[in-house]
Amino acid sequence: MNQAGNLAYDVFVNDPPPQDGFLPNGEPKRFSPMASTLIYGSEDAVLTDPGMTADQAHALGDWVAGKGRNVTDIFITHGHGDHWFAAGLLAERFGARVVASAGTITQMHGSVATRPLLWDKLYQGIPPSPVTGMTVPDNRFTLEGHDLVIVDVGHADADDNSVLHVPDLGLVIAGDVIYNGVHMYLAQSAVGGFRPWRDAIDKVEALGPRHIVCGHQNERLDDDAKRTIEQTRQYLDDADELLRTENTAVGYFNAKIERYPDHLGRLILWVTARALYGVRERPGENPAQITLSSWL
Ligand SMILES: [Zn+2]
Hints:
Layout: E1 2-4, E2 7-14, E3 34-40, E4 44-48, H1 54-65, E5 70-75, H2 87-94, E6 97-99, H3 102-114, H4 119-122, E7 140-143, E8 146-154, E9 161-166, E10 171-173, H5 195-206, E11 211-213, H6 225-245, H7 249-259, H8 266-281, H9 287-295
Parallel strand pairs: 4-5, 5-6, 10-11
Antiparallel strand pairs: 1-2, 2-3, 3-4, 7-8, 8-9, 9-10
The chain binds zinc ion.
Residues 80, 82-83, 176, 215-216 line the site of zinc ion (ZN).
């Protein structure tokens, strides 16, 4: 918990949902931990990125209820389903509005279309996920008089990523632009490289945050902005290097684990490796199709 005046925030990290199958090193496939933030005043609160499955919504919802605040808004950082498929359940439970940037709302529709081809094949118990998110004027809303600013940062792990800046807390809710102790999902950078992502990191840094909550983080680590920004840049630099020196997806997977033995979310590392090398090895094929099949 971090506090400024009557404004504070706290983070809940949900466990990944159960999944079948194994990674090349024999470990069970397992998604990354998923972090949601409750920003709260003396009476009201705003929740971010409420997760994917009904079980996650239940666990998160009970934690939120324990805070005893009136949840006015649920903010979604980007369109990937792991960040919002459970939003409807929590919006209903707390009588809250769902807020996102226009770009995120467009991407949410894309994720609904992809659901039966991807998410529902991997995970049980994803609730109905109609897109109910709405934009707010000038990408700003407030919590008990404190500004909450939605900042569009462009392509990172998805198209049209946004972050939520809370100036009065020195806080950025970074979604999947910044990571903290968890393997990064680089599959959607297979075409075009990491330049756009590095630009997005620069935009987060320019906000001057002291604290960053990442969409995927190891709950044992702190939320120091400088460290998480530096480590996210380093991870991209290492990926560029390994893409030059490793000839196969398995080689890349093993080399990343050697460099990052404590990072969580090795499923995402494996999906990323398959997508990056798949696009490289099969230039005639649709990259989006290669990325999709890398999950299955
Ligand atoms: Zn994510």
